[in-house]
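HUMAN: I'm a chemist; might I ask for a sequence paired with its structure tokens?

ASSISTANT:
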Amino acid sequence: MPETKLSPPRGWTDKVTAVDKVTDMLASSIDSTVANIKDILEQVQGDQYVFSSGNKFYFWNCVSDEGAVVTKPTGKEQLWKQMDTDIMRVEVKKL
């Protein structure tokens, strides 16, 4: 069954500027490969990205050069919904 296209949460876009450069940066930030980076969202008028690699989701802040792995909620649909409702309730662990 194909995955349903989810709309990005408010304040985020899936139309990533310089997607190849961003994908390389995100892959190196978590010591992964470009092929494993999926579901990239770019913060509108911000400096953060959210993305998946394997079965985990991550946030990456380009200004602080720091990242975090999402611990709760799990799954794309649940994460997008929580980000849209209240991003401060997304639980993360700093990398």
Notes: The two ends are 33 Å apart (CA to CA).
